[in-house]
Amino acid sequence: MLRNVFWKSLRDQRRALAWWGIGLVLLAVTTLLFYPAIRDSQELIQQAMQAFPKELLAIFAGEVTDIASPVGFLNTQLFFFMAPLLFLAFAIAFGSGAIAGEEERGTLDLLLANPVARRRVVVEKFAAMVVATIALATTFWAGLTVGSKAVGMEINVVRLAEMTVSLALLGLVFGSLALAFGAARGNSGLSIGVASALGVAFYFANALAPAVEALEPLRNFSPFYYYIGADPLTNGLNLAHAGVLAGLSVLLLIVALVTFERRDLRV
Amino acid sequence: MNGAVQTENLVKFYGRHQALDGVSLAVAEGEVFGYLGPNGAGKTTTIRVLLDFIRPTGGTALVFGLDARRSSREIRRRVGYLPGDLVLYENLTGQELLTYAANLRGGVDWRFAQRLAERLECDLSKRIHSLSHGNKQKVGLLLAFMSRPELVILDEPTTGLDPLGQHEFYRLVQEVKAEGRTVFLSSHNLPEVERVCDRVAIVREGKLVAVESVTTLKAHLLRRLELQFAAPVPPDVFSGVAGVRDVTVENSRLRCTVMGSLDSLIKTAARFEVVNVISQEPTLEEVFLSYYGGGRGDAS
């Protein structure tokens, strides 16, 4: 695990990764435990939902159509709000720690005293973030698959996998943003703040767009739209949308490479 | 032949603060070069330019004739470095830390590294966070020396070291020199630099004040001396002695300042009964005074 920067970065996160994995599986399972109850009182719930203002629902559940179907339940209860929130938090923490965190602790001098190019450090840390996020998404998917079987939910596990791929891609956009900001400025607190603030702003831009007309034009700028707008759980991964998310991450990686190469390291 | 380090008119601004103001240095291969100055004089800034951690606002820096910026990786392959503000990966053991560095360097001679650890009495099985400041410093020294680099750059290397550790460190430096390799060390401690270095650059407020061989430096140092005699002594006997100035005598106690060798003064004093000699090592400020204060007319 101490072979290179990539493995060292994963090694540093191994405990955090394990706990995040446990947390996400618990979230998947506990959420699914509610499913039978919701399914069995479908009519009541539908009535209650109709009584609710659409704008309020949209904030945390998106365009609610059918909460009692497996796809509707998973989309509203997990994939619209809770899962992205957690994946963003994980990726932003990883990304901001990658360069800026190490720089602030003062270990970046130690690392770069070795014959390793700055660019390579950025690429290897980015790769570690990608691998860690994919590992977490896989764990989440496994938890959902097992959990849905346990409560007798009929869900296409391939679609579920495609949904979690989209989720990982979304997390990576904001993780890459935090990494790029940290690489450019060397300040992890600021990079967490900026990435989180943009995450919140883009979330609302997407979530409220169907309900609030003024936000509609902003929707196409929100990564959240490319994450869930094409409903991957129903339709499978939209390659164009997934491409937008992946492209954004790559773009941010390039920003990190260029800015980190050009600046002075902080003492 | 290229020197180990060569800088030409290095200038570095941090915003409006000027950290380096035209530093031109030349360190030959095989010498132990001291970089002496008070805190904030620009020592660390110079070193960080050499390692390409920061980019100069003006001027050039070459290490082994290679541009510090363009050939940074090649340079760092040939350089061992101990940071002034040493921070290690706290969650690793010493052994793991060495392994990581060795892997990033493409391998080291482990028998040599192991022997070095024993000499410095480093316990590599302990996690870094459980080590004392001095023991962390030893791990830092190990990291700098273990790859047997052609150039060792050390920023305030003896900070926090116990006397035994310091002694072992001085021996290490001598060994590196004996093998024809180069040491560049920064310090604000004059006796240390006198002890291990061949040549010294004195830096203050981002400017080089002087570059001298240690022998020359010693010859121009002003040292404050206090001699206690058994009986009162006549002041005029001492004021005429070569290199001696500022003589004051209170009864049997003589105070004076001596430039360079103490030989004449000691021989004169030996005519009387000497009870005690108190010699004060010159502080850095006094070194600067001897360079600024007209102590010498041939400043080159």
Sequence of secondary-structure elements of chain A: HHHHHHHHHHHHHH
Lateral strand order in the biggest sheet of chain B? 6-7-8-3-9-10
Oligomer: heterodimer
Strand content of chain B: 25-35%
Low-confidence regions of chain A: none
Mean pLDDT of chain A: 93
CATH superfamily of the largest domain in chain B: P-loop containing nucleotide triphosphate hydrolases
Q: Tell me the helix content of chain A.
A: over 70%
- Rounded to the nearest angstrom, the distance between the terminal CA atoms of chain B is 24 Å
What is the CATH class of the largest domain in chain B? Alpha Beta
Instruction: Let me know the average pLDDT of chain B.
Output: 90
Of all protein chain pairs, which has the greatest interface, and how many residues does each chain bring to it? Answer: A-B, 21 and 31 residues
CATH third-tier fold name of the largest domain in chain B: Rossmann fold
Question: Radius of gyration of chain B over alpha carbons?
Answer: 22 Å
Provide the β-strand percentage band of chain A: under 5%
> Count the strands of chain A?
0
Explained architecture:
The complex is a heterodimer of chains A (267) and B (300). Chain A is built from 14 helices and no strands. Chain A has 267 residues and is an all-alpha fold. The model of chain A has no long low-confidence stretch (mean pLDDT 93). Chain A starts with a helix and ends in a 5-residue tail after the last helix. In chain A, 78% of the residues lie in helices and 0% in strands. Chain B has helices at 43-50, 72-78, 94-104, 110-119, 133-145, 163-178, 190-196, 214-219, 235-239, 263-269, 284-292, and strands at 5-14, 17-27, 32-36, 58-63, 66-67, 79-82, 151-155, 182-187, 199-204, 207-213, 222-229, 244-250, 253-259, 274-280. Residues 294-300 of chain B have low confidence and may be disordered. Chain B has 300 residues and is an alpha/beta fold. In chain B, the strands form 3 sheets. A 6-stranded mixed sheet of chain B has the order 6-7-8-3-9-10, sandwiched between helices. Chain B is globular, with a radius of gyration of 22 Å. Chain B folds into 2 domains: 3-218, 3-Layer(aba) Sandwich (Rossmann fold), CATH 3.40.50; 222-281, Alpha-Beta Plaits, CATH 3.30.70. At the A-B interface, helix 1 and helix 8 of A face helix 2, strand 6 and helix 3 of B.
